[in-house]
């Protein structure tokens, strides 16, 4: 396998500026990052360090000021809006803090909606595997209001997985959940990487959530400043403390 095929997404010398003149903010200041296929990557860092901006740029939801973004072998930076929409539909899955489910649709209809919009159908085997992994078989005909927060987030996870995207981006996926439901969702994300071979990038503030990842990338002030492999909640907490010290010294 070539290196190219093992990389699900890549940022090369990415800079992102917001605003102009005195009000200009450099949210990303030269970020180089590779997301390896079949890995669970967490992005951490202090508030305002650029985590969401980096994720939005990687996912083609925001445009970089300079540098390049690739998803699979496609260059995202410079893509037309039409091609970006197509890319987001077919190659990227999203999980948001607020679940973003449609209230009038059942769990199953919500899960299948992105594929329906793209005019595609999942293979029956894959759909069954995803539902099985998420543990939703008994809940497919329920509407979001009839589900707990954790179940709603698992529906959102299944929706992201069902199209077999190159990469799933999760923005604080456990931010609105109690700790038991949050743990369920994290175990599920972990499992979808281990047993379904999915690639996940997750932004989180929570060291115990980051400990479910294979790798944690730390941002500070728009730059990658540290990285941990096979993290534990303690090693992540320790790295965050060092970042705080670094920020205070700066
Ligand atoms: N649309 C925008 N316009 C202007 N500035 C922005 C915009 N979006 C983000 N920023 C600024 O860019 C910097 C990085 O923001 P970003 O939201 O990526 O940080 P973050 O690490 O995700 O923060 P948090 O943990 O608080 O969500 C911050 O200084 C922020 O104020």
UniProtKB/TrEMBL annotation:
Residues 12-246 form the ABC transporter domain. Keywords: ATP-binding, Nucleotide-binding, Transport. GO terms for molecular function: ATP binding. It holds the Pfam family ABC_tran. The keyword ATP-binding applies. InterPro entries: AAA+_ATPase, ABC_transporter-like_ATP-bd, ABC_transpr_LolD-like, MacB-like_ATP-bd, P-loop_NTPase. Coiled coil: none annotated. The keyword Metal-binding does not apply. This is ABC transporter ATP-binding protein.
């Amino acid at each position: 396998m070539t290196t190219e095929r093992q990389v699900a997404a890549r940022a090369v010398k990415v800079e992102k500026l917001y605003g102009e003149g005195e009000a200009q903010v450099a949210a990303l200041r030269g970020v180089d990052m590779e997301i390896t296929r079949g890995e669970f990557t967490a992005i951490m860092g202090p508030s305002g360090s650029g985590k969401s901006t980096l994720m939005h740029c990687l996912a083609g939801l925001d445009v970089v000021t300079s540098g390049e973004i690739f998803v699979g072998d496609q260059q995202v930076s410079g893509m037309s809006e039409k091609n970006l929409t197509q890319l987001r539909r077919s190659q990227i899955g999203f999980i948001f803090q607020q679940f973003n489910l449609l209230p009038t649709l059942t769990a199953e209809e919500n899960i299948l909606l992105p594929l329906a919009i793209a005019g595609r159908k999942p293979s029956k085997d894959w759909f069954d595997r995803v539902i099985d992994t998420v543990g939703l078989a008994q809940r497919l005909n329920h509407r979001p209001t009839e589900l707990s927060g954790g179940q709603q987030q698992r529906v959102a996870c299944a929706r992201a997985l069902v199209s077999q995207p190159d990469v799933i981006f999760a923005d604080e996926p456990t931010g609105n959940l109690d700790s038991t439901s949050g743990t369920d969702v994290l175990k599920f994300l972990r499992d979808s990487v281990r047993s379904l071979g999915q690639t996940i990038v997750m932004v989180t503030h929570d060291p115990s959530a980051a400990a479910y990842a294979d790798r944690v990338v730390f941002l500070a002030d728009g730059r990658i400043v540290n990285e941990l492999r096979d993290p534990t909640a303690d090693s992540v907490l320790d790295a965050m403390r060092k970042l705080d010290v670094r920020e205070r010294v700066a």
